[in-house]
Structure formats: structure tokens, C-alpha cells
Write a structure and sequence with these properties.
The complex is a heterodimer of chains A (about 280) and B (about 1000). Helices cover about 25% and strands about 25% of the residues of chain A. Chain A is α/β, with parallel strands linked by helices. Chain B is globular. Classes of the chains: A alpha/beta (about 280), B alpha+beta (about 1000). Chains A and B meet through helix 1, helix 3, strand 7 and strand 8 of A and helix 1, helix 4, helix 15, helix 17 and strand 27 of B.
């Protein structure tokens, strides 16, 4: 196997953030980054098996008709690859079983929960136990939010990070568990990775607009128990350079945006464990 | 089977959409409802088993974590308490995007495509709890939840609902005959009948135009030719519709190309202009390009769907702004959604095709707090605002194009017709297949290919309907609903086709549909042959003329060489984009249309495109004289400032801005909201289209219809100046800046309905004169534009004409985005400068409006002095000497200073006595006059000397200092403190007005 870290960004059917996601992967150190249209996957021109990092980027799959990511998840579940007819989901589960990484941002996170990739309790990646529903405000909103990275989570993307600042851009980002038990298990397993935080105290908050959607406990992102599958509502790929920051003209900021840090972690993990 | 699937949130989950609906019922209709729950309904008409129906309900249509579903009534199953049920669904044939996605999901589940008889339709059930009468529920349904033009609703009270077991299944399928026919119309009739034919057919053709058509058909060689093709001496409906569309004001810009006799009654001067467009728009651009010489970065101006300029060595930029006013008046959501996805197709269909990187939007409405009775057929301005806002939200956000710049302008006359300007910027490689990308050309023998959506009855007569005033008979079919996802899928596919070199020409299907797109592309080759029966339809029953001019959305027309057609069609199939060969481009000189091999239209290309004689119009300018303003003896300046900040034209538009994604694509550098708390008003947007390069684009606009009440010359000059100033304030230079002009006028053609036509036309002439003078003086060429000339409302003898409006949009290159500047004060101790001179110019100002008047002293632009000032400021910015810069516009210095201070969470201490002014003797005039070409700038003390040297001779006065105490403090002309306000309070006044 070659020693190259290969990242795949899937686009098509309403994905919108593929370009900046691919840029993030490059800045994070991936050696090969391909933006691949869903139809190219479905015609066997590209295969998930050839990559280490799968990016499910933001957008509006199928216009978010039927609910965010809902129709997109349905496609992943039922579509087959021509010729041959291999179910696409087989490639996906093989990818996961091989210990590779999946990063889902916004619509990608919505897709992951609607496919049941998250929370992934007991390595079951087709069990829908959590979801993302309409913001309490009932509005789509674009605003930057402060995030607290929970300590000691297995998430490979957030190792060594504690505070992040990214924009949210969604109408359906309120986290919902199927029941109390699911929520406690998420906490127990340390699968809650990011929480919306108060600007002053840095503590998780329920107060709007610091918590933009009313997510309980301020949950903004979760991972699977292995930490290799990570989904989050805020957009790390929207903060790759200091000039992306809303106050770059008035604050001293490092050249590199915080979004790059997540990808660097992912790429380093791949280098250390998968090559 | 015909069945319903009802899906709703589990009862333990908060129904935020229901709650928002309840709030709007209270706020907009003043009706108290205790609770609203919502249920999504899928009506499935398909040949499937009950098990398959169940699988669809449980699978793609329902989220098991948050939702329940029922195959009968979910309300009953969930035991919801409610008093009334309103169910809203689309009328037959109206675009139902979610229904389309639901159909595709069902097909995937079944493992087979749905046939023509099968479909899924969506509707929304609202369950209301509260003491309401049926009449009140009907008001809620008709005035808020449904637009009866495109939707129908059912109302049931609780008992009726229970008795019926819920709402019965109903599929809004289009039913129509399969019989097609082509009507022949006799034009050898009286003038009166000719006009009647035009009126009844929504053709918007005038008598003279009808006569030209009649005479052409009577020409013996024409008769001879037609006979050869099996056509009679009468014109076919297809032909008449084609001519009406091609010659519509919307498509032909007859007024801008008219011969106009203009008289200025003050100077007595009389002039004849042969075309406003050639004289005042095209010629100045040519002049500026001549001056640029070898550095001319204009690549394609006025000839394509968008203007194209060079950006970098490897990339070009295309920019276009359109309006979608008339449809937005009837159906604000669908109209605006179609407006944005429609203008997306302009840069996409420019040259060989551009990738879309930014949207802009400017809306003109009446006050959302409008309380007077509304004339017939007009929707309440709040409803229009909300519908338009949401339409652009869905169009822009779902397409993945950031909405980076825009504004909201308010005037009561926009109740008659709202203005909805939507713009799109695209980027394209300088070379495609080794050829300049801005060029395209169809060749004889190329195939006519239509891609994307299918054709339905939507948008029929859009071009002609927007070429007349809004009236009783304005057709509902003119309204369409855009489908951003189908369009995005097509764009993904066509960009690949472009890079593979699979087509030779591309254009969009907008106004006029195939008639316009194919007709225009065929000008390259000199003819075409089009087979309408091959066109894919949404449903059967369309007549040939309807297929020809339908403006059904999401379609592009391409010219594909026969050698590449198989490859092109295979790519489209693979990417699930419908593509159909409809005919061939020829050099026959004929506009030739067939249906089932029978000729249904055959016109000379030359007659279609050049057969229309220019209009002859008269313009007479007599300046209006308004009563002079009565200024208060001792105004409380603090109170006045708070009042101005809260005015609709000044206040924060954060409510709208936040609901648009302005950062997607990752290139956001200066966002619409900026400052210490991310909520100050940016003057312009800066984006970085190539994430690994430092070059960027600055995008800004200027618009000030309020000055039209005094003189449209100064209205236009101020709009151009404001656009350029906004861009300069954010870091753009003038040397690489292009403009777009969008004129929205009230009908300026004298007639019975428009006795003041000559005055309105003179207003148009004057605005054009100003545009030309400013473009040349600033060296900013117009590269594209559009006009919309019939923005009037006429019903039951009530006429409302909009104030004449010019939107001037600019796009400029900034060499290094790291040099961009924002408007917020940065540090205490920084020095405050006012650039430009203030005059006694309160005419048309916000302050004047607050005092209930208009006045006469309208702000006047001196573009030569302004250019010098802007160039000096740009130099200072390039050297990194400027901490903040903010343009002075509505509300003048007072508003700009307040915004600069509160955006920075700092204070400003300024002395009016230090400001450069001429003929100003009052503090309120100095604070609130809207004199043009002024900016408020802050500079770090260490940079002050160099800044002042750079600005020497550019009317720069140091008027104060930034303070750490967050207070705006103003010393008056007599040296006393005349205003002390906490910035926090000023900000609250600015934010509360539109905090919906």
C-alpha cells in the first residue's frame, strides 16, 4: 500500500461545501484529495475503498426535502453501483470496518445520523438513535458560535483542542435523542465531542444565540465510540484562513484558521495508524 | 392506489414551525391562537402494494427518532387536541419540489421509475387550537398560510374532521386533452380588433406592432414562401406568440432603444436621442475601454447573458443583476425564488459557462407596518417581504451560492409593485479548450439540446406580462416556483460537459423560453429547425405555442456538434440530468418550428429580430418644486439620531442577513455584518474565489430612489457614487471596477393611462445622462444591465407608480484581500477623519422624511473631485494606513458615526466645527445632510501624518478621536456639546425596528 494519505470529498445532489472541504484536507496535509460526484461513485468510476478519509460536506442534499439529509440517506441505503450492482452501503460499511475516518459537517452530520452511522453504539452503524431537527427559532441562521471541546473523548479529530470558533449555517441542527437512555450512553461513552459554549464563561449553554438551535446540553457534535466517525453542525471548513474570521480586521489572529487543526489531526491519525 | 401518508413530529418534540406559525398569526393578523401543530402530508398516487406504501412511510418519509407517521390520520393517532384543521396543497401543475423528491425516493425504494400516471404530492396540515370562527380561520388560510394563486386549502372544524376521519386523499394531477391544435389568427381586421387580439392574448403588443405583423404577412413573397410550407395567409398562434415574446418590452427593451425627443423646459434645450442604451450606456463603456487601451480588462460587454471581465491571468468574472418584480407581487415566495435561480442561469449561460460564486439581493418594499387599506389584488407588504426573503433564502442557500451583499429599501409606493433585484457573480477559466471562454458560437448543423427541467404551463406569458402593469387579469400562469436542486444537478453536469468540450454554445431559458433561447442562439448561424413534439413535458395537454414560450424553470439550451452528441447525452444520463435533442441550427434564414413534422411557425429570422421599428417618444423635463423644509428651531439631536437609526431605510437588516448563507464556498473575507459583536453594517462584501490565492473581489451597490422625487439625474449620480464609495471603503480601487445598471421605472410612454409619460420619460433620460457622466468621470464601465419599465399598478382607477429607481452594482478586483478594511472603529485613540465636503443638502434625505417633507436641495455628485478622493483613500489603504472606513449615506454623518462607534464597541468624540462644509450653519444639517462622496475614516495616531499627506487635496478633515468610553459625543458649530449618547442605546434603536 502506498504511503499517501488519500481523502475523498463527495459532492452532487445538493452538496455545496465540497470545494472548501477539499481545501481543508489539503491544508491538513492529505496527499491526495479528490472531489467525487455521487454519480461517479454510483458508476464505479471511484470507490471508497481507495481512500482513508471520507468527507461528507455541507449542503442541502435533495433540497433537504423530506427532512435534512433524509432523502440523501435513503439514496446511500438503496443505491447500487453499476455495473455489477454492489450496494453502495457495502462499500461504506467496509470502509468503516477497515478503521477509516469519516467526517460529516452540517448536512453531512445530518446524513450520518439519518443513516445511523452515529451514534454507532456497539459498532452498529445502521441504527438510528439520534437525529437533528428544526432549530427552536424555526429559522436557518448563519452565525459564528463558540464551541467547547469535551475532554477525554475518543474523537481523533479534536485531540489536543479545547476551544473552537466556527460558523453554523443551518435550519435543522437541534440534537435529539430517541430516549433518555441514548443520551446517558452518549455521555458515558464520552461521545459528545462539541458543545455550544457561552462567550464569557466557556461553559455549555442553552441561551440563544450562543446556542443557536436549542440543542440540549449544547450538543454540537458527536463521534462514534471508536472516535473515527465524527459529525458536527458547525463548519470547520469555513475557517481555514485568518481572513475567514469575522473579526480579522480588529484582532490578532494566527494565519491558519482553526478548521485546519481538525483535519491535521485526522491526517496524522491516518499516517500513524492506517498507512 | 391513491393514499395519504401523514408525517409529524412526535408529541414530545417541540414543533418550532407550528410555533412560528402561531406567532405570525398573532403578529400579522392579530388573531390569538393557543397552539399550532403541523403535519406533512404525502399523497401517493401509484401502482404499489400496501406493504410498499408502508415501507415508504416508514423509510424515506419519516425520521423514526423525531417523527411518527400514519396511513390514516396522524392527528387522531397522536390524539392531538385541536379546534380547526387547515390543509394547504398545491394546485395542479404547480412545481412541488418536495413532491418531486418524494417521488424519486419512492422510485428508488421500488427499484423502478414511476410512470406518467404515478406521482407523490405534498401538502401541509395545520391544526389550530383556539377560539376562532370559521371566518377567522379562512382569513388565516387565505392571508397567511396559502396563496390561492398557486395553492388551495381545505378547512375542517374538529367535528367535521372526526366525522370524515381526517382529510380525504386528493391528487392534484393535471388533466388535459391529448388533442393538439394550431389556431390561425386573421389579422386583416380593424385596428380595434387588432388591439383586442393583443389584449385578450396577453400579448402586450401595441397597435403599430400589430400592424407591422399584419403587413409583413401580406407581403407577396412571404405569402408564397408560407404556402410552400403548408402555412396559410393567416398567422399561426405559435408565430404570433413568438413575435409577442420577442418584441416584448421585457426582451426587446423598446424604450431604451426608442428615438426620444427630449425637451428641457428650463433651459429650453431640445435634443433627439436615437437610443438611450447606445448613447448613455454602450458609448461610455466604449470610451472608457479606449482610454484603458492595452489594459482593457473588459472582455464581453452587453452582448451575452452577463458581462465578463478579466480577474486574474487564469480566471474571468461574469456578473449579472436581474429583476423579478411582477411575479414577486403575485407570489412573493415563488417569484423571488425564481428570481434568484433565474439570474443564476445568466452567468452560467455566459460565454462557455461560469461557475457561480456569489449572489446579491436588493429588495424595495412598502413598510411592513403598512396599515392603510390595500388596493385589490395587492398582498400586504409584510407578507411580500417575508415571502421574498424566504424565496431568496431557499434559492441561494440550497444552490450553495453565498449571498454576500444586498439591501432593503422602503417607500410606500412599492406597495404597487415590489422590486426584487437578484444578482449573481460567476467565475470561469480564461480559456476553455484553448479558446477564450467568453466567446461561444453555435454552428450550422449543431443540434439544439435542452437540458434540465421539463416544460409545463408555468411561466407562460411571463415576458409579456411583465411588459405591462399589474392589473385584474394578470395571469396566474405567469408565476413559477424555482427548483434549485434540479438546477444544481444540471450545473454540476454541464460544467463537466464544458470542460470536456462537448458543446459549442450555451444559453439559459428565461423569459420567452425556447422561443427566446433558441431564437437568440440561432442568430449565430442564421436559422434553426425546432421540433416541439420532442420536448419533454411535465404533463400532457400543452399546445405547441405553450411549449414554445413556456418559461418553466431550470432549463438550459445548448448547441452540441453531432460528433459529440452521444458523449454529451451519456454524461447527462449518468448524472441523472434530462437532455433532449429538439432540432438543428441551420443557415436557412428561417425561424422554423414543427410539431409532428408539420410546420407550425416559419418566420424570417430577420423579421423576428429586426422587424420592429423603433418607437418614437417624447420627453419633457420640468423640475418639480417642493415646499422648502421647515427645520425645527431647536432640535434634540440625540432624539433625532435615535429616530433616524430606527427608520426602515437605515435600521439593521440583520433579521434578513442571518437567514442567508453568506459564507458557503469558503471565500468569505468581509461579511455583511462586521465589528466587535459581528453585527455592524458592512459597506461591501469581499470574497476570495480561489482559496489558495490572495486576489479577491469586492462587491457593492448603490440605490437611492428617494431622490427621484426631486431629480432623477441626481438620484442616478448618487446611486453610482454610493456603489463606488461602498466598494472603495472596503478596499477596492477604481482601476479594476466594473458596473451594472438596473433601471426599474414606471411606464414612461404617454397614453390614456399614463398622461404624465413625457415627464417620466424625461426622468429616464436624465438618469441616463447622469449614469453616463459618472461612469466616464469615475472610469467605471458598465458591462451589463437590465431595465424593467412597467412597474405600475392599475386597478379600479387606482394607479400606483413606483419611484424611478436605478440600482448600480459594482464588482472590483482587490489585489490582496489581506488589505481589506471594515467599517467598525478599531481602537481608542485612533483619529477620526471626515472625507468630503458637507453642503446644505437635506433634499430627499431621511431627516427630511422624518420631518414630513422632501425639500429641494438634493445631494449632487462632483465625480471628478470624488474620484481624486477615492483614489487617495485607496492608496492610503494599500499602504495599510486606514483602521476603518465607512460610507456616509442615509442619515449622513450622524448615522455613520453612530454605526462606526457601536460596531466597534467604542465611542467617538467629534467636533462639527472641524468638518469641511459649505453653506451649512446648523448642527442638524451638518449631522444629517446626505451630501455625496463622503466617508468617515479612523486612523491609528502613528499613521496619521502619512495618511494626511496621502489625502492632501482630497477634502480631508480631522474631526475627532475614538474613545474607550462607548459614547458618541458631538460638539456643535458653536463649540458646545450638542449630542451625548451611549452607543449601546444607539445600537438598540438601530436594531429594534426589524427585529422580527
Amino acid at each position: 500500500m502506498s504511503k499517501q494519505v488519500k481523502a475523498l470529498v463527495i459532492t452532487g445532489y445538493g452538496t455545496n461545501c465540497e470545494m472548501e472541504m477539499a481545501h481543508a484536507c489539503r491544508l491538513g496535509g492529505a496527499d491526495q484529495v479528490d472531489i467525487v460526484h455521487m454519480s461517479e461513485l454510483l458508476h464505479g468510476e471511484y470507490r471508497l475503498d481507495d481512500y482513508h478519509l471520507l468527507n461528507l460536506a455541507g449542503g442541502f442534499l435533495d433540497g433537504d426535502d423530506l427532512g435534512a439529509g433524509q432523502a440523501g440517506a435513503h439514496r446511500w441505503r438503496y443505491a447500487t453501483v453499476k455495473p455489477g450492482g454492489e450496494p453502495l452501503r457495502d462499500q461504506l460499511y467496509r470502509f468503516i470496518n477497515d478503521g477509516k475516518l469519516i467526517l460529516g459537517v452540517c448536512n453531512g452530520f445530518q446524513l450520518m445520523v439519518k443513516l445511523g452511522l452515529l451514534p454507532g453504539f456497539e459498532r452498529r452503524y445502521d441504527h438510528r438513535l439520534v437525529s437533528l431537527t428544526h432549530n427552536d427559532s424555526s429559522r436557518f441562521e448563519d452565525r459564528w458560535v463558540r464551541l467547547r471541546v469535551e475532554p477525554d473523548t475518543p474523537c481523533v479529530f479534536t485531540q489536543g483542542l479545547d476551544k473552537l470558533y466556527f460558523p453554523v449555517r443551518h435550519g435543522e441542527g437541534k440534537f435529539v435523542c430517541a430516549g433518555e437512555g441514548v443520551c446517558s450512553l452518549l455521555q458515558e461513552n464520552k461521545q459528545v465531542v462539541l458543545r455550544y459554549a457561552d462567550g464569557e464563561t466557556g461553559e455549555p449553554t442553552m441561551a440563544y444565540p450562543a446556542n443557536p438551535n436549542g440543542s440540549p446540553g449544547g450538543i454540537a457534535g458527536i463521534c462514534d465510540p471508536s472516535g473515527r466517525l465524527f459529525g458536527l453542525m458547525p463548519h470547520p471548513e469555513a475557517y481555514l484562513h485568518r481572513t475567514n474570521h469575522p473579526r480579522w480586521t480588529r484582532e490578532e489572529l494566527p494565519e491558519e484558521g482553526q478548521g485546519v487543526l481538525l483535519l491535521k489531526n485526522g491526517v496524522n491519525f491516518i499516517r500513524d495508524n492506517l498507512l | 392506489m391513491l393514499a395519504r401518508i401523514e408525517v409529524g413530529l412526535k408529541t414530545r418534540i417541540n414543533d418550532s414551525f407550528g410555533q412560528a406559525t402561531r406567532k405570525r398569526i398573532a403578529a400579522d393578523l392579530q388573531l390569538a391562537v393557543e397552539e399550532v401543530r403541523t403535519i406533512k402530508v404525502f399523497t401517493v398516487e401509484a401502482d404499489i402494494t400496501p406493504e410498499q406504501l408502508q415501507a415508504a412511510a416508514a423509510g424515506p418519509y419519516c425520521d423514526p427518532v423525531t417523527q411518527d407517521y400514519a396511513l390514516d390520520s396522524l392527528a387522531r393517532r397522536q390524539e392531538l387536541a385541536f379546534d380547526w384543521c387547515i390543509e394547504v396543497g398545491y394546485r395542479p401543475g404547480v412545481t412541488d419540489n418536495e413532491g418531486r423528491t418524494a417521488s424519486q425516493a419512492l422510485a428508488l425504494l421500488l427499484g423502478r421509475p414511476l410512470n406518467d400516471q404515478e406521482a407523490v404530492y405534498t401538502s401541509m396540515q395545520y391544526l389550530l387550537q383556539g377560539e376562532l370562527t370559521r371566518g377567522q380561520v379562512e382569513i388565516i388560510a387565505a392571508k397567511l398560510l396559502a396563496n390561492e394563486l398557486i395553492e388551495r386549502f381545505t378547512i375542517l372544524d374538529h367535528r367535521e374532521f372526526v366525522d370524515q376521519g381526517g382529510v380525504p386523499a386528493h391528487a392534484p394531477r393535471v388533466t388535459g386533452g391529448d388533442q393538439w391544435r394550431v389556431a390561425e389568427i386573421d389579422l386583416n381586421v380593424s385596428d380595434e380588433t387588432l388591439l383586442q387580439i393583443s389584449r385578450d392574448g396577453v400579448l402586450a403588443l401595441g397597435l403599430e406592432e400589430m400592424q407591422v405583423i399584419r403587413d409583413h404577412l401580406a407581403d407577396p413573397p412571404v405569402i408564397e414562401q408560407r404556402r410552400g410550407l403548408g402555412l396559410g395567409e393567416k398567422i399561426t398562434d405559435v408565430e404570433l406568440e413568438v413575435l409577442a415574446q420577442s418584441w416584448s418590452e421585457h426582451c426587446k427593451h423598446k424604450i431604451f432603444n426608442a428615438q426620444i425627443s427630449y425637451e428641457d423646459t428650463v433651459s429650453g434645450e431640445k435634443t433627439v436621442f436615437h437610443s438611450l442604451f447606445d448613447t448613455f450606456i454602450r458609448a461610455p463603456t466604449a470610451e472608457i475601454r479606449r482610454q484603458m487601451g492595452d489594459n482593457d480588462w473588459c472582455l464581453s460587454v452587453f452582448k451575452d447573458n452577463a458581462g465578463v471581465i478579466r480577474f486574474t491571468q487564469d480566471w474571468n468574472i461574469a456578473f449579472k443583476v436581474e429583476t423579478h418584480n411582477s411575479p414577486s407581487a403575485l407570489d412573493p415566495y415563488g417569484g423571488a425564488l425564481t428570481g434568484i435561480v433565474g439570474v443564476n442561469r445568466d452567468p452560467f449561460g455566459t460565454g462557455m459557462g461560469a461557475k457561480l460564486i456569489a449572489n446579491t439581493d436588493v429588495f424595495c418594499f412598502a413598510s411592513p407596518f403598512y396599515e392603510d387599506p390595500l388596493p385589490a389584488r395587492l398582498l400586504h407588504p409584510k407578507r411580500i417581504l417575508e415571502g421574498v426573503r424566504q424565496g431568496v433564502e431557499h434559492g441561494g442557500n440550497k444552490s450553495g451560492i453565498p449571498t454576500v451583499n444586498g439591501s432593503l429599501v422602503f417607500d410606500s409606493r412599492f406597495a404597487g409593485k415590489p422590486l426584487v433585484f437578484c444578482g449573481t457573480v460567476g467565475i470561469m477559466p480564461t480559456l476553455v479548450g484553448g479558446q477564450p471562454s467568453e466567446h461561444k458560437k453555435a454552428n450550422p448543423g449543431d443540434l439544439i439540446v435542452m437540458t434540465g427541467g421539463r416544460i409545463g404551463k408555468d411561466g407562460i406569458h411571463g415576458a409579456t406580462f411583465s411588459s405591462e402593469e399589474l392589473h385584474e387579469g394578470s395571469p396566474a400562469t405567469a408565476v413559477q416556483i424555482g427548483d434549485p436542486i434540479t438546477q444544481k444537478r444540471m450545473f454540476d453536469c454541464l460544467l463537466k460537459a464544458r470542460d470536456l468540450g462537448l458543446y459549442s454554445c450555451i444559453t439559459d431559458n428565461g423569459a420567452g423560453g425556447l422561443s427566446s433561447s433558441v431564437g437568440e442562439m440561432a442568430e449565430d448561424t442564421g436559422g434553426f429547425e425546432l421540433h416541439l413534439d420532442k420536448a419533454p413535458l411535465k404533463y400532457p395537454g400543452l399546445q405547441p405555442w405553450e411549449i414554445m414560450i413556456s418559461e418553466a424553470q431550470e432549463r438550459m439550451t445548448l448547441a452540441v456538434p453531432p460528433a459529440r452528441i452521444q458523449e454529451f447525452l451519456a454524461l447527462c444520463r449518468r448524472m441523472e440530468v434530462e437532455a433532449t435533442v429538439l432540432g438543428t441550427f441551420t443557415d436557412s434564414g428561417k425561424f422554423h418550428v414543427l410539431y409532428q413534422e408539420q410546420t407550425v411557425a416559419c418566420l424570417d429570422m430577420d423579421f423576428v429580430h429586426h422587424g420592429l421599428p423603433p418607437m418614437q417618444l417624447t420627453a419633457r423635463w420640468t423640475p418639480p418644486i417642493h415646499p422648502e423644509l421647515e427645520l425645527p428651531a431647536a432640535p434634540n439631536l440625540g432624539e433625532e439620531l435615535h429616530g433616524l437609526l430606527g427608520r426602515l431605510n437605515v435600521c439593521s437588516k440583520e433579521y434578513v442577513v442571518r437567514q442567508y448563507d453568506h459564507e458557503v464556498q469558503g471565500g468569505s473575507v468581509v461579511k455583511p455584518l462586521t465589528g466587535a459583536e459581528n453585527d455592524g453594517p458592512s459597506d461591501a462584501a469581499v470574497i476570495r474565489p480561489q482559496l489558495d490565492a490572495s486576489e479577491g473581489l469586492v462587491i457593492a451597490h448603490g440605490i437611492c430612489p428617494k431622490y427621484s422625487d426631486i431629480d432623477t439625474y441626481h438620484m442616478a449620480a448618487c446611486a453610482v457614487d454610493e456603489a463606488i464609495r461602498n466598494a472603495v471603503a472596503t478596499g477596492a480601487g477604481l482601476d479594476h471596477m466594473a458596473g451594472l445598471d438596473n433601471f426599474c421605472w414606471c411606464d414612461p410612454v404617454q397614453s390614456e393611462k399614463t398622461p404624465d409619460g413625457p415627464y417620466k420619460l424625461a426622468q429616464l433620460v436624465r438618469a441616463n445622462q447622469a449614469l453616463a457622466a459618472c461612469a466616464v468621470a469615475f472610469g467605471v464601465p458598465c458591462i451589463s444591465g437590465k431595465d424593467s419599465m412597467k412597474n405600475d399598478y392599475m386597478m379600479n382607477n387606482v394607479k400606483i407608480s413606483i419611484p424611478p429607481t436605478l440600482l448600480f452594482s459594482v464588482v472590483a478586483k482587490i489585489a490582496d484581500v489581506n488589505k481589506a478594511v471594515t467599517m467598525d472603529a478599531k481602537k481608542s485613540g485612533d483619529l477620526v477623519y471626515l472625507l468630503g465636503t458637507t453642503y446644505d443638502e437635506l433634499g430627499g434625505s431621511e431627516y427630511a422624511a422624518r420631518l414630513g417633507g422632501i425639500g429641494n436641495n438634493v445631494p449632487k455628485v462632483n465625480p471628478v473631485a470624488a474620484r481624486r478622493r477615492y483614489e487617495a483613500l485607496h492608496q492610503a489603504m494599500t499602504r495599510g494606513l486606514v483602521a476603518s472606513a465607512h460610507d456616509l449615506s442615509d442619515g449622513g454623518l450622524g448615522v455613520a458615526a453612530a454605526e462606526c462607534a457601536f460596531a466597534g464597541n467604542l465611542g467617538l468624540d467629534i467636533d462639527l466645527g472641524l468638518a469641511l462644509a459649505e453653506g451649512v450653519y446648523r448642527d442638524d444639517v451638518l449631522l444629517f445632510a446626505e451630501s455625496a462622496s463622503r466617508l468617515l475614516v479612523t486612523v491609528a495616531p502613528a499613521d496619521a501624518d502619512e495618511f494626511e499627506q496621502t489625502m492632501a487635496g482630497a477634502e480631508c478633515s480631522r474631526i475627532g478621536v475614538v474613545t474607550s468610553e462607548p459614547v458618541l459625543r458631538v460638539s456643535g458649530l458653536n463649540g458646545e456639546t450638542v449630542l451625548v449618547e451611549r452607543t449601546e442605546d444607539l445600537k438598540r434603536s438601530w436594531q429594534h425596528t426589524l427585529a422580527f
